[in-house]
Amino acid sequence: MKIGILTSGGDCPGLNAVIRAIVLKGTSAYDIEFVGIRDGWRGVVEGDFFPLTRHEVKGLSKVGGTILGTSRTNPYEGDRGGAENIAKTLYGHRIDGIVAIGGEGTLAAADRLSKDGIKVVGVPKTIDNDLRATDYSFGFDTAVNIATDAMDRLRTTGDSHQRCMVAEVMGRHVGWIALHSGIASGAHVICIPEVPLSITEIAALVTSAHDRGRAPLVVVSEGFKLKGMEEAYSDKGLDAFNRPRLGGIGDLLAPEIERITGVETRATILGHIQRGGSPSAFDRVLATRLGLHAADALVSEAWGHMVALRGTDIVRVPFSDALGELNTVPLYRYEEAAALFG
Ligand code: F6P
């Protein structure tokens, strides 16, 4: 059996650990031959492959990024030819099937290709932890650790100057990174897309923390929208206060918090630092286990399925289970954290 492996969508710590585990188990236990596919679906569409042996994956579990490269190419868009073109390319290189490691968009393409006859096994990946078919996705724990470390640092400088510190973390649609890093770092306010708050509510929590002698820490997901001002976000040029858009929501909140509370406030946007560097031990183990089970799924010909974490077990689920609704933060989880705001 000859299998191509690709990584697609935004990168994520742990991708290399998955690739390593698939290749190690696939070659030693099942005698599978592997090729790496460069830059996600682009590499499949263009036939950009290279041999992937035990040698190429040596020592990779601790290495961030992806040795395969990644892109957000959709094989069905433009003149890429969809499943027909991919089938032709794979046949030409005598490749029997693909392991696609990616998030929602990647798995949606994998699902469609699979229905169109391409043999695909999936591995879920996202630092946002927003895929509902898996309890946790690798990359998330690393991102939370990076964000927590950054907030611990923001707190000491905030304390020294008696400033309010606003930290913006990733999470376009869901607030898992903000929730977990906010709890871990003892934030006084956590703002997530699932729970709209008004600037008045945020300012009241900041004032209360300040009055208790604390340097207030506000953690905000990039996808958070202020209550009552949602329409303002549809205007591309202006922010919710009719000013030219500066950047992220953190930059929007900081001056308003300062204006209302009188507490000097600074914003930090953590950005792609959360996705870079070495995976945490938890993510290395999770990614490795997913890779090992993906190799098993190949020999079982479990096409159209992805491997996923349920409780402490790795299971196989159909692609369709991972699509549609996102894994959002339930209200009770937010309320647990809010009980600590004071
Ligand atoms: O989906 C993961 C994610 O990290 C989001 O949290 C973030 O909004 C996005 O990717 C950033 O994407 P890009 O790297 O394309 O700017």
Automatic annotation (TrEMBL):
- Superkingdom in the source lineage: Bacteria
Q: Which reaction does it catalyse?
A: beta-D-fructose 6-phosphate + ATP = beta-D-fructose 1,6-bisphosphate + ADP + H(+)
* Keyword set, alphabetical order: ATP-binding, Cytoplasm, Glycolysis, Kinase, Magnesium, Metal-binding, Nucleotide-binding, Transferase
User: InterPro entries, from UniProt?
Assistant: ATP_PFK, ATP_PFK_prok-type, Phosphofructokinase_CS, Phosphofructokinase_dom, Phosphofructokinase_III, PKF_sf
Residues of the active site:
D128
Where, by residue number, does Mg(2+) bind? E104
Q: Which Pfam families has this protein been placed in?
A: PFK (PF00365)
List positions binding substrate.
Answer: T126, I127, D128, R163, M170, G171, R172, E222, R266, H272, I273, Q274, R275
Q: Which cofactor does it need?
A: Mg(2+)
Site residues, Important for substrate specificity = G105
The EC code for this enzyme is: 2.7.1.11
List, for all copies, the residue spans of the domain called Phosphofructokinase.
2-298
As for subcellular location, the record says: Cytoplasm
Task: Name the major location.
Answer: cytoplasm
Q: Where does ATP bind?
A: G10, R72, T73, G103, E104, G105, T106
Pathway it belongs to? Carbohydrate degradation; glycolysis; D-glyceraldehyde 3-phosphate and glycerone phosphate from D-glucose: step 3/4
How does this protein assemble?
A: Homodimer or homotetramer.
Regarding protein family, the annotation reads:
Belongs to the phosphofructokinase type A (PFKA) family. Mixed-substrate PFK group III subfamily.
Q: What is this protein's function?
A: Catalyzes the phosphorylation of D-fructose 6-phosphate to fructose 1,6-bisphosphate by ATP, the first committing step of glycolysis.
What is the protein's given name?
A: ATP-dependent 6-phosphofructokinase
The source organism is Microbacterium istanbulense
Q: Which gene encodes it?
A: pfkA
